[in-house]
Design goal:
Shape of chain A: globular
Distance between the termini of chain A: 44 Å
Oligomer: homodimer
Order of helices and strands of chain A: HHHHHHHHHHHHHHHHHHHHHH
Radius of gyration of chain A: 24 Å
Structural class of chain A: mainly alpha
């Protein structure tokens, strides 16, 4: 066959962007609903834009400073060419990541209004609108990360054995932006949520999304900047880092596969995009269909097609069926992760039921049980990860290719991320539906419309929880791939093979302990940042409620003031955890050197996966325990059990929407930072 | 010098037991107070004895079963002699550990009454009684672990190069008993506490230790079986395991030091006992003295003397000053750990102040802030551990002795544990003072006596928190020593040097991830066990309160029934976490083999230290935030802030008194289990 694989990558990448544009136009041409709805949607849009603008300004400054630092390191070790290449690819990665986030959110904050306007006429059509709005994010993010890596690969010379090492800066740029986007967005969304709830629901006794609450618009903005822009940046960097890491591993197989081993990750990803697009087109439920079923159907189509394409690409480029099995292992793992997440966060199963039961005896037992559930939920995912790694490694060894084992784990990661664009679309569906719910509620739509909307909103919550499970699973697999890339990088720099990280060595063990500790410290800082920002919002909301006319509905609250305070607070408070996440590993690596740094990275990753599972699933379980009680169980809304469950839900908020997702990014950031700054650790 | 070091060990060991007997007689001859007091004390004694009797019956059965299993493993690999030796030393270790616990507690449940009776006449004298009561535990435990190791060493042949490997069963026997003693006691004490508080304080609004509360005696029994017997078993196995591990490392230095390198750990420990005894005799405060200052003075005396003795023993037996510096590193680390614990758990410092502030906005913010503090508090201890390990290793290397680095870390552990007997005495002071407080309260003593008692009780709480910091620090250092012993053991078994644990290998990495996961799972099971047991007590207390005469004070509650239910519940619910803690590592080791098992052990230890710090310090901070509010701050007792702080305190209870201390034991159990079952992992 005489087809250049890179041409396929470019073709599919551009095609995916065209599809995204088609979806965007399809969403935008739809009914925008009543004047009331439009007014609220406009406030959300303005708030989101204002936040993004300021956030990316801060991030841009940090990016330039950091680019200078990285280039300085390489100049310092006497590699001016690498200094230039890495600096440029860092900035390019950061730029692409930011751009993908901005485009995705621009559509999401318009799709919410269209979804709200459509739901009263046709709930099935509304699902389609929300899904296609999400697909704009999903496709743009995956396509841009793919095209970005391909472009920079060509831009830096396309030497199959050298260029992959030069483009690591691209992955780090993406991680860098993702860290701050997720932290800032995560702090924003939960500070606004906690602030709105504590004064509105608890002190004033008004319902969620009540238009009299001054923080309600900030809360809706938060859904976009946290869940949508944040997770978008997270998965942008996942796919970028994984592409680059796999290409570096491909270099080791160059004698065997030639350039095919290096380009395989990009081609596999490209076909995953096609499979995802097919899946998205399948989501067109009837008005009477269960929306979750429609989304699942699309997912299974994407999954099945991905598997088929994967087989085709593997046989074509690598001509070895064992690597297909390795990819399949990753795909199956992603399914298992989703099922485990369901088990731990849905009210039909034992864990959430236990939390519901314990809410009856008050908030203390609710928290104790929720925490026990959160700790327990780490067991099955870790066993799944261990089994997948060992299995895909074994398949790689069975392939008979020298060094095939590690490449097997890399291919498992590609398998897991094959349906990434679909999952990401489903994920962005969440905040769009959530926002649409808020718009319906605030525009005082009739009860019957609200009920239809609630159903969609609930599906959005489920998809958000599931994709968090998917994101952490992919972070875990990608991390192992990136360790290997780091070790390859060090081998190249020192000229000696670096294949052993001996944790029985005192310094290496210390590095490992410090890596795990960073995870705990970072989580603490992220949670505290929410608390600090929420405090400011609480004060402002209380201040506004001092005017009695507000509660009586005679004047409008000053939404913009709350949005402004949240924006400033989130941006100020994202800096400390962000700096610690970057400076601490650099300091440890510079002092304890590269072998200890490898242990830092690996054990930090293990701790990060565990902690992220605790945060995500614990938060999700608390949330759903509360929702289950609100359905009328154990006394329903207003009962003591409900009050206890609200405490649990509030505790879980910064866990699942700030600390947890930020940890996903941190895990990959640690990997890319060590890749880029490796010369410092020698 | 022609003195046989072992003679010194036996002489000091026996001398320490004589001193313990002297203290016991000194405590027992004192005033037993009023009839009312004696009646309550008798109920506590009976409850404690009943629990211990049943608990040790269960443990005895498990011990015999496990001894058979271990011997079976060795028979299976064709080593009948080792099968016999290991089985015997396992049972002997288990027996000594149990015996030490029983003796210590027998005195503690009598010292409480004497302390309560003395406090009205002379608070200074009461401090002395409680400290000497605690010293019986402290001295017996350390002396018995020392004599036990020395005896079994002689009993199995005293071959300096062979015997140390045979006595590993002793350490595992001690760990085995410690795990169940700490788990059972920890579940007992917190289930009773939560049960008594949730119905008594929250539902009925009666004060703590009110004699009308049916669960109040169970609560007081819990202080003894959890804090006293549990921690006693914990530190018994710490010292035993550390002695054995250091002796095994000494084998590697045999060509250089001869038998001195192997016996040094025992001699150093013996002199630590003398230093501790001197410190205990120094605790004789005047009635106007601050009791905490008196305890600190004694500690500094023990610390200073230990350091001097350590210098003397090092120069005599090893004749190398660098090893003294290594020992000093461990001593200083123990001090640093105590200061860090104070910072995170006392109300004068930022962390507890933050929790107090956040209690004003309700239980959710109290929990969020407390959790953030708990996560943060891991940072300084881990940096301290890393620095101590690297420093003591460096001193070992500087000694010029071949393989001296690892021996340096072993000696740091000995330094840290030098004052162990004193710290343990101070620790047992806690439950004795706590119990005395309960006896004073329940016997309706005059207000003035209660105030004097409260002061003593508060000091007891502080010492309990500090010794938990000490226990986790020593577990961390001892663990590294035990890794090395495990690797030495494997080298001996395979006949190939095993010096590299390559965590970059997929299987080894998986082992590491599974080790960290076990910590999370085990914590979950321990916390859940408390919840399940507490539920039974809550039901019983509510049932008894249905008789209105109880609340009116017209009839006595049925204390024995609550004690009985708690006993049964704690024993039933300790089995699952205990079995998981033992079976899971064995299964992983048997499947993934010895190198992965080493990573399991090491990364499990790191995760264990982090989680134990979170649990201990988080719980301690919540507790003290509540106490600070109860002093009249933020509205004092009964305010909303107080209610929120009570929720935090209740959440912290199973963290700091069940899961945290059980994790200390688990860390060392993992090490001793791998040592003993090493043949299974090859």
């Amino acid at each position: 066959m005489e087809i250049d694989p890179m041409m396929i990558v470019f073709a599919i990448g551009i095609f995916s962007i065209i599809v995204a544009v088609y979806f965007a136009r399809d969403v935008l041409r739809r009914d925008k609903g009543s004047k009331d709805m439009q007014k609220i949607a406009k406030a959300i849009q303005e708030g989101s834009n204002a936040f993004l603008k300021r956030q990316y300004k801060t991030i841009a400054i940090l990016t330039v400073v950091f680019a200078a630092l990285i280039s300085g390191v390489y100049l310092f070790v006497g590699k001016p060419e690498t200094a230039f290449n890495t600096g440029v690819s860092f900035i390019f990665g950061a730029f692409c990541s930011a751009l993908a986030g901005i485009i995705g959110m621009t559509i999401a904050v318009r799709a919410n209004l269209r979804t709200a306007a459509t739901v009263s006429k046709s709930p099935g059509e509304a699902v389609k609108v929300a899904m296609r709005g999400g697909a704009v994010s999903g496709l743009i993010i995956v396509a841009m990360s793919l095209l970005g890596v391909a472009l920079i690969y060509y831009g830096l010379g396309a030497d199959p054995q050298q260029t992959p090492f030069m483009i690591v800066g691209y992955g780090f740029g993406a991680s860098f932006v993702a860290l701050f986007a997720q932290l800032g967005g995560g702090i924003y969304t939960k500070a606004a949520d906690v602030g709105a709830d504590l004064v509105g629901k608890v002190e004033k006794g008004i319902p969620e999304d009540d238009p009299r609450n001054p923080a309600v618009v900030a809360d809706l903005v938060g859904d976009n900047v946290g869940d949508c822009a944040g997770r978008g940046a997270d998965l942008f960097e996942s796919t970028a880092a994984e592409n680059i890491g796999a290409m570096i591993l491909g270099v080791a197989l160059f004698p065997y596969f030639g350039v095919n081993g290096i380009l395989f990750p990009l081609v596999a990803r490209a076909f995953g995009l096609i499979a995802s697009i097919a899946g998205i087109f399948m989501v067109r439920p009837k008005d009477t269909d269960d929306p979750m079923k429609a989304l699942n159907r699309g997912y299974y189509v994407a999954f099945g097609l991905s598997a088929a394409f994967f087989y085709f690409v593997t046989m074509w480029m690598l001509n070895n069926v064992w690597f297909f099995y390795a990819g399949l292992t990753g795909m199956v793992m992603s399914l298992v992760f989703i099922y485990i997440t369901q088990y731990y966060t849905e009210h039909k199963y034992r864990p959430v039921k236990m939390i519901v039961e314990s809410s009856v005896t008050g908030p203390a037992t609710n928290i104790i049980t929720g925490f026990a559930v959160a700790l327990e939920c780490t067991a099955l995912p870790i066993i799944t990860i261990a089994a997948s790694l060992i299995l895909s490694f074994t398949f790689g060894v069975l392939s008979g290719v020298p060094n095939g084992g590690l490449y097997g784990t890399a291919i498992a990661t590609m398998g897991m991320l094959a349906t990434c664009a679909y999952v990401l679309s489903m994920d962005t569906f969440g905040p769009i539906a959530d926002n649409a719910g808020g718009i319906v509620e605030m525009s005082k739509a009739p009860e019957e419309v609200r009920k239809k909307m609630d159903r969609l909103d609930a599906v959005g919550n489920t998809t958000k929880a599931l994709t968090k499970g998917y994101a952490i699973g992919s972070a875990a697999l990608a991390a192992f791939l990136l360790f290997s890339a780091y070790m390859g990088d060090i081998s190249m720099l020192t000229g000696k093979p670096f294949t052993v990280v001996n944790i029985a060595n005192v310094t290496v063990f210390s590095g490992a302990a410090l890596g795990a500790m960073l995870i705990f410290l970072f989580s603490s800082l992220a949670i505290n940042a929410v608390g600090k920002t929420a405090q400011k919002i609480i004060e402002e909301v209380r201040r506004q409620f001092q005017d009695k006319r507000l509660m009586a509905g005679k004047i409008d609250p000053d939404y913009a003031k709350c949005v402004d305070i949240t924006t400033k607070g989130a941006l100020r408070n994202m800096v400390l955890p962000g700096i610690v996440a970057i400076a601490f590993p650099v300091a440890v690596g510079a002092i304890l050197k590269y072998e200890a740094m490898a242990a830092f990275l690996m054990v930090g990753t293990i701790a990060g996966i565990l902690m992220a599972l605790v945060m995500n699933n614990g938060g999700g379980a608390w949330d759903n325990a509360k929702k289950y009680i609100e359905l009328g169980n154990k006394g329903g809304k207003g009962s003591d059990a409900h009050k206890a469950a609200v405490v649990g839900d509030t505790v879980g908020d910064p866990f699942k929407d700030t600390a947890g997702p930020s940890l996903h990014v941190l895990i990959k950031l640690l990997a890319t930072i060590t890749l880029v700054l490796a010369p410092l650790f020698i």
